[in-house]
Amino acid sequence: MQIRTLRLADAPSLLEFELANRDWFESHVDARTPDFYNLAGVTAHIEDYLVRYSSGSLHPCLLVEDGDIIGRCNLKDIDRIGGRAEVGYRIAASAIGRGLAGAALSHLMDLAYGRWELSGLDAHVTIANAASARVLERAGFTLAGPSPIVAMVAERQLACLHYRHN
Question: Could you tell me if residue 163 is inside a domain?
C-alpha cells in the first residue's frame, strides 16, 4: 500500500472509488452533492483540491494498493501562522479492519509535523463513529470536547466530538 498526493490523472479512479463506496461513506459522514458523482464533478473536485494544495491550505492524499484507490486522507485548513490543521480520512468498505485509517493518520501526522512544520492537529468525529475515535486515540489525540460541527448523516443531524493532538 502506498499513500501519495492526489493528481488530476486520478479522476477516473477516484470516481470509481467514490461510487463504489458511496453508501458506506454516506452512512458515516456528510453526503456529497449529486453533481460530484460524474467525471466532470470529480475532476472539478480534484482541480479545487490541487489549487488549495498549491496555496498551502490543503494536502490531499490517496491510499493506493495494486493500482486501486482504497482510501483518502487530507490535511485540511492548514494554518501555517497558527500552526494547526485538521485531519480527515475515509477508507473503502472492503478495506476496513486492516489498519489503513491508522496508517493514513500516521502519514498525515508526518506531513503536518515534517513538511508543513505545524505544531498541532485537530479532528472532528461524529458521536456515532467510535471506530474513528479509537484510531485518533491510538495516535495520541485527546478528546477536547464537543465540536461546533454538526454532521448530516443518513438524513439525521449528528453531533461531533473534537479531538486534538499537541
Answer: no
